[in-house]
Amino acid sequence: MNSSIVRRITKNGLLLALLCVMGMFSIPFGENVKVSLQLLMVMIICLMADGVLDCLIITGSYLGLGMFMPIYAGFNSGISATFGYVIAFVAASPVYYFMNKIPKIPAILRMALACVIGTLVVYAIGTLWMMFYLNWDLGKTLLVSVVPYLPFDAIKIVLAVSVVMALPKSITNRG
Asked: Regarding the domain delimited by 3-172, which CATH topology (the fold level of the hierarchy) does it fall under?
């Protein structure tokens, strides 16, 4: 087997394992706000993936595994009110990946822009799912599922870009 294929499969497997492990944990901030590391890992994965298919395979595998294993935030599995966010990780992966490939923009700005736009896609899909799943109006859903997380997700964007910038280019596939 070609060594570049083995390297790519190994990298994807390690990134999926990190997503599964880090995604399980959530940090409570107040009574109703629990911040997980799922989105941070999705950002890192999509910023350093070798191709868009890799992003889709990793996030899609995470979605599939979480249907049967408690790897979602808070050690949960299956379909719930927040399941739309897991679906959104898969749907937003190409956005993160391709926004990070825009030429003639410095890498740090390109990655930050990719994270902001990708996260907006995650918010949109996750919020719509929660709104319909719980039969809530848009305002209530945004107040519960987006507004409390904005500062934490801004920090995640800074962390994701910092981590990818700190790693060797040979691992991250950044130009």
From this structure: Arp2/3 complex 21 kDa subunit ARPC3 (1.10.1760)
